[in-house]
Every structure is written in C-alpha cells, then in structure tokens.
Design a protein that fits this description.
The complex is a heterodimer of chains A (about 425) and B (about 120). By secondary structure, chain A is mainly α. Chain A is built from 19 helices and no strands. The longest helix of chain A is centred in the N-terminal third of the chain and has 31 residues. Chain B is about 30% helix and about 35% strand. Classes of the chains: A mainly alpha (about 425), B alpha+beta (about 120). At the A-B interface, α1, α10 and α12 of A face α1 and α2 of B.
C-alpha cells in the first residue's frame, strides 16, 4: 500500500459505500412502506433491494439525491409495477390478479397520500411485529429482524452468527416463505395480543444482544457489533412504543451491560469478570443513558427486564467493586425470582446472597438448584459454587468446581478464565 | 462506532428561522429513533466559557469570550455502523442549515471516538 492518489477503483468503491450507507439508513422505513403497499414483507424487501441496485447504478453519475428516501420509494414502486405487469402477462392466477388490483388501488391511494410520513411509525411497528411473528422459528425471527429492521446483508448476518452464508440465506428465504404460507398479514397486533407479541419482539432483540455479549461458543468472548445492532433496535422500539415499560427496561438493561464491553476483555483478549474490571473504562455515556432509561421504565411499571436493569444499575453506580450495594441486589433478585423463577435467575440470586456477605446461605441456595435439569451442564453453576467455596476458605473443593466449569463451557475465553481461577487456588 | 460532531458557524445577526429549528428537531427525532443519535446539546457562546491553559509550567484560567472566526454552536454524538453513515447524518444536518437559513455559513467537524476496531492489528 503506497500513499499514492486514490485509484478510480478506490473512488468507485467509496461511492458504493456511501450509497449503501444512505440505503441502510432508509431501508427499514423503505421496506415498511413497501410492505404496507404490497402486503408481503419478503416482496417488499426484494423491491427495496431492487431500488438499491438502481441507486448503485445511477448515483455514482448523478450524485445522491437531495432527499433519497422518497427517491428510493418511488424507484421501488416502479419496480413493483414492472413486476405486476410481468405477472399479468405470464401468470393468470386469479388470486394474484385479485391481489394486484388491490395493490394498484392502494398505490393510487398512496400517491394521493401526501402525508405518508405520518404513518411511518405504524408501518415500522408492523414490520417489527411481522419479523418476530409467532409462526417463525427463533433463528428465523433473529435473521429476519436483522435483515428487515437492521438493514444487514446476508453475509453480515452469517458473519455475526458464525454460520455459512448459505445457511443465513436459507434462513431468510425460509422465513419469508413461512410468512406467505401462513398468510401472515402486515398488521399490528390487537390490544389483547400485544403483551405476548411484544414479549416475542423483545426476546429477539435481547437474543441478538446476548449473542454478541456472551458468545456462547467459539473463540470470541464478545462480538460488540451485534450488541450495538441490538441497542439500535432497542432504541428504535423505545421510539415507536414510548409507553411500554418493558421496552425501556430492556433498552436500559442493554445500555448498562454494553457500557462494560470494553472492560470485559483484557489486552490479550481474555474475559475479565465483572468484579475485577477496571471500572474507569466503563462507558459513561451508555451508563447515563441506561440510568435515564431505567428511571423511565420504573416510572411506567416494573417487569423482569426493568428489574434486571436495576440490578445492572447497582454495579454501574459503584465506582469501585467494594462499593456495590449487594443488599439491594439481593432484594431486587428476590422480586425477580418471584416474577420469573427460572433456574438461572435463582442461581444468580444465590450468587448475590453469597457475595452480599453470606456465602454459607448462598451455597445452600445453589445446592437446592443442583437437581435442576436446565442447569445440569450450565458452567455458571460450578463457577458460583467455586466462588462461594473460595470465600469460605475451602480452596481445594473450590478449585474442583472451577475445573468442572472449565470443562462445561463452550467458550474458549471463559474456559481460560475458569482455569486461571482454579490455578490461583491452592488446596 | 462512535463519532463526535462539532458544529462551528458564523451566526448571522438574524435569529435562526423557526422552520429550521423545527426541521432540526425532526431530524434529531429521526436519528434518535433510528438508534444512532446518543447525545446532543447546544452550547452557550464562548463568553460564558473559559480556558484552562498550561504553558511553561504555569496553569492559567482565562474567561471567554474568545476571538474565533467561528463559534462552536452545538455537539452531537452518533453511534453508527460505519464512517459513511456518519457522513450521511451530518450532511443531512448541514443541508437543513443551507436550505433554511440564507446567509448562514458554517461547518461540522467530525471526529471518531476511539473504539475497539481502532486497536485491531493491521490487515
């Protein structure tokens, strides 16, 4: 690489990247508007892609239009009409024709509708709920949400989830087909359906976040890009559903957890446990946003995401690990365990009780969970036991627990961390 | 990745047109909902600020105003996927000024906040 002037090829690539960035900024709104017109998110996404192809051809010559959103929408609509014409000519399926007529009427209405912008919030929400529709599998929901709302390409989704591109492409194609086959309409859930449907959406977003935050397998401890993708989705939801406490709770939780991303890995790329982190490198801006979001969530109502955010906030507020308000954390876990008595929550509560100054009681609580099937191969169970045994001065048994945790984890960095803890304990 | 944008301008004597303020609010809302605008704020003129200088081993606090061609007007912090997205958002912001405030001239200086990607080994 020399310091020579950029080649025409470099310039072309730079223009392409600029066009793609504009498209990505517009893509969710573009797909949402198109989906309302054609009542099919799969088709809408293809039309949006068509518009990108046209933009990549034209904009390098003409420059990016002053207002690229409407340009992309108009271009995609032309493509839609082209497709309809072709279908009219070659396909004589009655159902299709009936739908075409309906679509064309909707176009006419949309053209007249100068205030299209006013509906964009609703259209985006429809897109959010459709991408996480109950007829879809978990993997399909994640892939479709990243694709339709995040504007991620198939290779980007494949990279994020460490799967081959063909697998990611398959997931998206299958998800789109499932929506068509199940005749899923592009609509908002009813008030009665909302809690359950919203829970599904939030679960998808948190899954994306966690996949980035604690990569369950493989060499990377965290993939921060995925965390940031989930954060942007969470912020989008908070803008679209400002009155929903769970949305703000989840967003606050993610902002607070993401504030520690930098500190969770040392210079050698090895994971650093929460209590050993250099808190000076926590992200103050994300902490402030998280605490603000938590206050908003708490003012709207208490749910499990909000409680988890409140627990994360106890850590965020402590400038040194010794200042952590453990009694408050235990109290919050008590409420959370009541609301959501999952084995993992109960294990975390046990750990908090132990760290709050009562390792014996913590250990009793952990042992009550030993028979839980869900925790049988869960590396955090022996890790918590190890931690509490170490605090009680039982170095030998603590060491065995950490070695057991190292055996169970599928994450390379975490394995090294547990081994280091074991090595540090002399029985 | 995170970017800091600083708006610097020579403010005309006329007050900012209300349409511009409305358009800035709308763009800010769009960027917030898109999840990319993390923080932003307007700044008082340098008359209300100060500088703390260290030179030749001496520390000195000097109150504003400072004679600068352009005043710093506001700041914004963006969280975007790449540089091009940041360029697009900041360009949109500047286009509003160009289109709605005749006689206005200014610039947005954008700086990248150090991130993990900046520590990556050279490819």
């Amino acid at each position: 690489m020399t310091a020579a002037d950029p080649t025409p090829q470099d310039a072309r690539r730079a223009t392409h990247r600029a066009v793609e960035a504009v498209w990505r900024i517009e893509s969710a709104r573009l797909i949402a508007r198109l989906a309302r017109l054609v009542s099919d998110v799969g088709l809408a996404e293809e039309l949006a892609q068509d518009a990108l192809v046209v933009a990549l051809e034209r904009w390098p010559q003409t420059g990016v239009p002053e207002d690229p959103g409407p340009w992309l929408l108009a271009t995609a609509k032309h493509r839609a009409i082209d497709r309809l014409r072709r279908q009219e000519r070659y396909a004589r399926k009655l159902t299709l024709l009936a739908r075409d007529a309906q679509i064309r009427q909707e176009y006419a209405e949309a053209e007249r509708d100068a205030e299209l912008d006013d509906h964009i919030g609703d259209d985006l929400l429809r897109l959010v709920f459709t991408a996480a529709h109950p007829v879809l599998s978990g993997e399909a929901k994640v892939a479709l949400t990243l694709r339709l709302l995040g504007g991620l390409t198939t290779p980007e989704i494949a990279r994020a989830f460490l799967v081959p591109e063909s697998t990611a492409a398959q997931r998206i194609v299958r998800a789109k087909r499932t929506l068509v086959a199940a005749n899923v309409r592009f609509e908002l859930p009813t008030r009665a359906e909302l809690p359950e449907r919203l829970a599904a959406v939030l679960e998808v977003v948190y899954l994306i976040f966690n996949e980035g935050y604690a990569a369950t397998s493989g060499p990377n401890w965290a993939r921060p890009e995925l965390c940031h993708e989930a954060l942007r989705l969470g912020r989008l939801l908070a803008g679209l559903l400002p009155a929903e406490p769970a949305v703000h709770g989840l967003l606050a939780l993610m902002e607070l957890q993401a504030s520690r991303l930098r500190a969770r890995v040392d210079a050698a790329g090895q994971p650093v446990p929460l209590l050993d982190q250099d808190r000076r490198s926590w992200d103050r801006l994300l902490i402030r946003r998280g605490l603000d979001g938590l206050a908003r969530a708490e003012s709207l109502g208490i749910g499990s995401y909000t409680l988890q955010a409140a627990i994360a906030a106890c850590h965020a507020r402590a400038t040194r690990a010794e200042q952590t308000d453990w009694p408050r954390i235990v109290a919050l876990y008590e409420v959370l365990a009541h609301l959501q008595p999952s084995p993992v929550v109960l294990l975390n509560r046990a750990a908090a009780v132990g760290l709050a100054g009562d390792p014996t009681r913590g250990l009793v609580l952990v042992d009550e969970l030993a028979q839980e099937r869900a925790l049988r191969d869960y590396p955090q169970l022996p890790a918590v036991r190890g931690e509490l045994l170490a605090r009680l001065g039982h170095a030998g048994p603590a060491r065995d627990e950490f070695l057991r945790a190292a055996e169970l984890t599928r994450n390379d960095g975490e394995r090294a961390l547990f081994r280091r803890r074991a090595d540090g304990l002399v029985g | 990745m995170r970017y800091l944008a600083l708006l610097k301008a020579i403010q005309p004597d006329t007050p900012a047109p209300p349409e511009l303020m409305a358009a800035i609010m709308k763009l800010g809302e769009e960027a917030t909902t898109a999840g990319v605008l993390l923080d932003q704020g307007g700044l008082l003129p340098s008359a209300a600020g100060w500088r703390v200088d260290v030179s030749a081993g001496k520390l000195a606090v000097t109150d504003g105003p400072f004679a600068e061609a352009k005043e710093i007007i506001s700041y914004a912090v963006y969280d975007v996927r790449d540089r091009e997205e940041a360029v697009e958002w900041t360009s949109r912001f500047m286009k509003l000024h160009r289109d709605m405030w005749p006689g206005w001239s200014g610039e947005t200086e954008v700086r990248k906040v150090f991130g993990p990607e900046d520590f990556a080994p050279p490819a």
